[in-house]
Amino acid sequence: MGDPGIVVAVVDSGIAYEYYRDVYGTYYQAPDLAGTNFVDDWDFVNDDGHPNDDYCHGTYVAGTIAQSTYNGVGRRGWPRLFAYAGQGTTRRWKSLRLGRGRRYKIRSGPRRTDHKPQPGLRVSQLVSGGRRGLRPRLGAVIVWRAGNDDGAVRYPAAYDDHCIAVGATRYDEQFTSYTNFGSSIDLVAPGGDMGVDQNGDGYNEGVLQQTFNPETKVLNDFGYWFLDGTSMSAPHVSGTAALFLSLNGVKDPDFVEYILSRTAEDEGDAGWDEHYSLGIVDAYAALTGRVPWLSGVSASGGAVGTVVTVAGEFFGEPQMTSNVSFDEVEAAHTSWSDTEIVCLVPAGASGQTEVTVGTIGGLSEGIPFSVVPELDCIDPDHGPVGATVTLSGSGFGYWRGESLVTFDGVPATGYGYWINDTILCEVPEGLTGLVKVEVITEGGKSEGLPFNV
């Protein structure tokens, strides 16, 4: 079911994915990763093709994402993995090697990454140097832990436009005491809390996963361990996103983040808040819901009747309740597919609006669109200073506010009334001969019509 080619790149201490001997020791395969596919593995610390774990952390993270499923052992995992050794404790970690690893990893084709740099390492410069090309150009979706300092989200997770920053919740779905938070948090997921036993099962509420002994670091002493931290929450988001990519064939990383956020389980204050962002990742809702998403509109503005193409995903087949709206004014469409809608700027729309798509799956977020006023007629088309004239057209707005009519740039006076398709005003003083009349609103300036004073 879905695309088996989706790969999750785990940037960590390596993964216990094979039996292998080298000068550093003997490495073993974690039993619950025996059925997991690994692709294009590389160790950029030791420059070899064996990124084996010597710390336990990477194996634990990888298990949450992609351990074997329905094998009668342990817990369920998700897709294929790209094993990447970019840090460690018994080997010297070099920031230069992490930079090399990131480039190699992305060029190899993974769409999903789950980074976990060690505390204190200077990785933000490397991310800053390459981050702009990573997500938008190559389609990589980047998930990064928010940090465990009970403070602001750490970099590189705090790069708002490029990373999904993940905080941690515990058994009762409350945010943990250690998780970082703030304006850069994007999602939260189960991270555990080893300080409590909220379900009364006799175990502290960590996240349970297989790895080798985190206390002794004996590489063949595998077991299931409770751990907590945003490193435990981030792989839940990575796995969910990989499944979404696999099932839907999408390539835009912004769309993936949008769906995960819009289908998250809201906690804390209604809507966004600094501890939960938009909520706890909900894999079932993300995979089954079809909330429409807008990737762009063919024009940033236009007059009533302008043909506009709305691009995105999950528009579905048009239903009775499906609609494209400019603010709350519904537009007529001439074609509708799952990824593109062609519509006309509707009469009644004016000023600065937002284009949205509503379907049975929900209401999309909006994209700004300026409805430019259109002046069709001036009646009469001539008259003296102080004469009352009627302007007819569209997109004027339902009240004047800061809008105005000008005669060769001179503001009109004596406005009688102002509605969306009709304006009454007086010819201003100081004019003579043929002038140009224009309507100016927050949506823009109309084409001018001649008036003879």
Question: How are the secondary structure elements laid out?
Answer:
Layout: E1 7-12, E2 20-22, E3 25-27, E4 42-43, H1 57-66, E5 80-85, H2 95-107, E6 112-115, H3 124-138, E7 141-145, E8 164-169, E9 187-190, E10 207-212, E11 222-227, H4 230-248, H5 253-262, H6 283-288, E12 293-297, E13 301-302, E14 307-313, E15 323-326, E16 329-331, E17 333-336, E18 340-344, E19 351-359, E20 362-363, E21 367-371, E22 374-379, E23 388-394, E24 404-407, E25 410-411, E26 413-419, E27 422-426, E28 434-441, E29 444-445, E30 449-452
Parallel strand pairs: 1-5, 1-6, 4-5, 6-7, 7-8, 8-9, 13-21
Antiparallel strand pairs: 2-3, 10-11, 12-14, 14-18, 15-16, 15-19, 17-18, 19-20, 19-21, 22-23, 23-27, 24-25, 24-28, 26-27, 28-29, 28-30
Helix pairs in contact: 1-4, 2-3
E-strand count: 30
Measure the end-to-end span. 74 Å
Percent range for β-strand residues: 25-35%
Derived structural class: alpha+beta
State the share of residues found in helices, binned by percent: 10-25%
* Shape verdict: elongated
Number of helices: 6
Q: Which sheet architecture does the biggest sheet show?
A: 7 strands, parallel
